[in-house]
Amino acid sequence: MLRANYNWSLADRIDTYYQRYICGDYCDLRTKVIITPLTCLLGGATGNPWSNKGKKRSPVNIQITELPNLKQARPWYDEIDSTVLQQNLRRLDKAYNNFFQQKKGFPKFKNKSKYRSFTYATGVKIKGNKIYLPKLGWVKFYNSRPMPDGFKIKSVTVRKKSNGYYISVRIEDKSVPTFPVKNLEEITTVTGLDMGLGKLIYCSDYSAIDNPRFATNKTTKRLHKIRQRRVSRKKKRSNNRQKVGRRLSRFQHRIAVKRESYQWQTAKKIVSKSDGIAVEDLQISNMIKRCKPKYDQNTGRFLKNGQSAKRALNRLIADASWYSLTQKIEYMAAKSGKIVLRVNPRHTSQECSVCHHIDPDNREGEKFLCTNCGHVDDANFQASINIKNKAINHYSLNIVKKFSQKVRRDLPEPKQLNLFQTPTVELTTGKRKYHYASNGKRNEPGNLKEYAFQLSLFNQENNHPDRDSL
Ligand SMILES: [Zn+2]
């Protein structure tokens, strides 16, 4: 019923728009309201565009005030809670706003599989493991989180997922202070993050977070393929197809849940690192675009365009889901009063962090070697440091500079034996481990066998008894 209402309201808006667009000045036969370009609003809806106080109504409000009339015409709407119907119209309005303001797609008519949730504004009560949904009554549910005291329920959304129904409750307590947010001047430490595929995140402090590849690891990929094939082999519109289809979506849901939980944990870890977190402002939807088709000019046939190779990469990027991860980092940061700084991703992987020389040749796979100053580093960590530096410059932050603790990689020189020096116990103990033989006896360190062999190399005969075994 809600879906029908949604689709009807959408059609109503579209009709109104076209009528206005064509005539400009006319009288609507259904509602007998004069609609002119002056009175009709963008997005339009049939109904009285003027409120009783003489103010202009927005398209949603027109449709909401028309609801009682619509209910009279359709008595079966009595079974739906009135706030749910209103929220349904607000959803449509949100879709319109997304279209006009955020340049998203035009609102679509929804089919059965696309319409999965509805929202209550008021009237919901929670008691222990039972929830009261108006017009549905008391429903038993698993209460995953107790309601904190003093909070008021603002809205409740019931959502159908592949393994059951979920309820999310939005609560508010005005006496609780909002989280304090740091100013840009207060930031003293910044961590740069470079999102990758080998590791999920490369931090500028040379730590990295693993990429578990929940959907694209070998086992899951294979299982997914099998389950998908089972669906596609079944007869269309058959019960069997539905059954295996549901099984597939449960499988996908499980992967999504795992990823979500991992991302929350990661976000928490990242946010605890520093006051500011610098990330690249990536356009991920552009990154996973398909390759353009190539044609043969003479025959008009399609040529290979590299899409089959890119598909695997696209799937990896989609599995890493950097966007939702940054969203979670942003959320956690806001909760602890920290700031996420977005940075232009241009040249972050090609710039040298020491001399700021930009050259695409600097990077070769994982390796980074500056063609100007010879600085050597891991390319991913290099990128994260660049992101950090960019954030510091762009937002002009006062960072407390720490002296980098450089660890000498080269070890002290190993003790070398002269060719004819007899190895002593003092030289060999501590270097060699005891090896226990199967009979429980151990080989004593300072065993001269090996050295004896080395020395014997210089003998002309080469007749050491243990030579082959060594
Ligand atoms: Zn350099």
Could you name the key traits of this structure?
about 475 residues; alpha+beta; 12 helices; 18 strands; binds zinc ion
Written description of the protein model:
- There is one protein chain.
- The protein is an alpha+beta fold.
- It folds into four domains: 2-101, no CATH class; 117-172, no CATH class; 184-394, no CATH class; 412-470, no CATH class.
- It has twelve helices and 18 strands.
- The chain has helices spanning 2-23, 59-65, 67-73, 82-101, 218-233, 239-271, 284-287, 307-320, 322-335, 379-394, 425-428, 449-456, and strands at 26-27, 34-35, 117-120, 125-127, 130-133, 137-140, 152-161, 164-172, 190-195, 199-203, 208-210, 276-280, 294-295, 302-303, 339-343, 363-364, 367-369, 376-378.
- A five-stranded mixed sheet has the order 11-10-9-12-15.
- The N and C termini lie far apart (83 Å).
- Bound molecules: zinc ion (ZN).
- The site of zinc ion (ZN) has 8 residues, from loops.
What is the residue-mean pLDDT, rounded to a whole number? Answer: 82
Calculate Rg over CA atoms. 34 Å
| Range of strand content | 15-25%
Shape: globular
Characterize the biggest β-sheet: 5 strands, mixed
Identify every distinct bound molecule in the structure, by name, code or SMILES: zinc ion
Say how many strands there are.
Answer: 18
What's the helical proportion of residues? 25-40%
Outline of the structure:
Helix content is 35%, strand content 16%.
Secondary-structure blueprint of this entry?
Blueprint: H1 2-23, E1 26-27, E2 34-35, H2 59-65, H3 67-73, H4 82-101, E3 117-120, E4 125-127, E5 130-133, E6 137-140, E7 152-161, E8 164-172, E9 190-195, E10 199-203, E11 208-210, H5 218-233, H6 239-271, E12 276-280, H7 284-287, E13 294-295, E14 302-303, H8 307-320, H9 322-335, E15 339-343, E16 363-364, E17 367-369, E18 376-378, H10 379-394, H11 425-428, H12 449-456
Parallel strand pairs: 9-12, 12-15
Antiparallel strand pairs: 1-2, 3-7, 4-5, 5-6, 7-8, 9-10, 10-11, 13-14, 16-17, 17-18
